[in-house]
Structure formats: C-alpha cells, structure tokens
Amino acid sequence: MDKIALRPLAKVNFGLDVVGKREDGYHEVRMVMQTLSLHDHMVMEKQDNGKVSLKTNLRYLPTDKNNLVIQAIELLREEFHISQGVRVNLKKVIPVAGGMAGGSSDAAAAIFGMNKLFDLHLSRKDMMERGLTLGADVPYCIMRGTALAEGIGEVLTPLPGIPKCGVLIVKPAFSVSTKKVYEAFDKQSAINHPNMDKLLEAVSNQDMDGILMHMGNNLEDVTKRMHPIIGRIEEQMEQAGARRAMMSGSGPTVFGIFDTIEEAQRASRVFQSRKDIGQVHVTTIYNVKGR
Hints:
The chain is an alpha+beta fold.
C-alpha cells in the first residue's frame, strides 16, 4: 500500500467533570466521550525523498513539527527505522481549538495510517499507547465510540453506544485557550460537579431522556463568563428545538441534541450567515460496531 485516505472524527463530551489537580499540573477528570460522524479529510502517501510534509487548507495551522500529525509520523518513523518519506494532505472540517479534539483525532489517524502504510502490525492497544505520548485525547481518538475517560483522560472504559440522534455543531467566530480556561477554573471558590454516576447509568441503559437530563460540563461556567455568546447560542439552539445544548470540552463549540438530523438541519438556519458564528455543521452520533 502506497496511499491511504482517512477520516479523523470529531468528539464531544456528554459529561465533563474536573475532579482535581495533580502535583504535576495536570487535571484529573471524569468524562463521557462520544465520537461524531463529523470528520476531517486526510490522505497519506509514501514519498521516496525521505521527507515528511504536510499541506492543509488552513493557512494558520503549523505544518512543521509543531503539528501533532508530523509528530505522530516521526514517532513511528524513528521507532521502526522507516527511511521512506510521507506526504500528508489534510483538509480541516472539525473546528480548530474548539473543544472537539480535532488535532488529537488527526494525530490518531496519522498513527493508524502509518500502521497500514508500512505494515507495522500494531494492535489498537499498541497504537493507543504511542498516541498517549502525543496527548491525553489521542488514545480515545484511536478507540472511538462512547467511553468513560478518567485520570487525565487516558484511562478509558468502553460504554454502550449513545442512541443515534441529530447533532448541531456551532462554533463562535473565535477560539479559546484550554490553558486559560483551566487557569480560570482553578481560581473559582466554588465548583459545580455534574452527576456523572447518573449520566453513566443512563448511558449504560441507553436512556436518552436520562442522558439529556444528566449531561454536564463544569468547565462551561468558566468559558461562558469569558464569552457570554456561548450561553446565548445554547439558548437559541433550545429555542430552535434542541432537546439539550451544551459546550464541548473547554469550548467554545456548542452542540445541540435533536431527535432527528432533519430537525438539526432546520435549526442550523438560525446560525448560518451570522458574522459572530465561525462554523455550523449538522452531523450524528458515530458508534463502534458491537457496542
């Protein structure tokens, strides 16, 4: 195989609870992660000049060793003594710096692609272990589906798939710094914790009403205070028919849950062509077969 086309998938958090901070500065979390069908487009191709190159559709994205895709490729080239080069063409669709693990998913796809292109015979567990050296979300992006993430996000427990539904993605016309969100979170005098046990029970029972009732993200209050438009987008989504709307990750992307894709598509019109909105996507839940 000399060339492979890949679809790095986006994720949202149906639950995100920051439960503490470790001495090394990392935060302990409990999260219910869910993959979506929304995806980037990546093509990886061998090249004989021994170089690794990356081309993207976004001028502001780094295309050197500061990009996780390059880091993932070089990690495996070094470990397996691969002299052949790799050319990557990446079309970004997942919001950048939007709380949807786009960069981590691209890195996960690059690991998967290298495994296929060079017949490395790495198991999923092997790929996840290597992904963890690049970032806490990368192992989940290799695993995909519905999962409980604990520790710093790297301790993963597969869960039954969340029932199919329409999902509306709206990212305001700005990005946020995860680092700044966590710094503000640490300065709070009082912290609200979502009821993760109830959420996990609802997910295990595939009880959509229970899932919607117990969804929660305790980074949301912090990011909303910095950017009140996030709260307004949530309200507008629910007025347009979303059964629940919430921020994903550290934000600023908001996702709304609808009974059908058609309902999500109708609601998307509220946000299209607005100057304060950067991206609008309609998608659905992506579940791993057998879960």
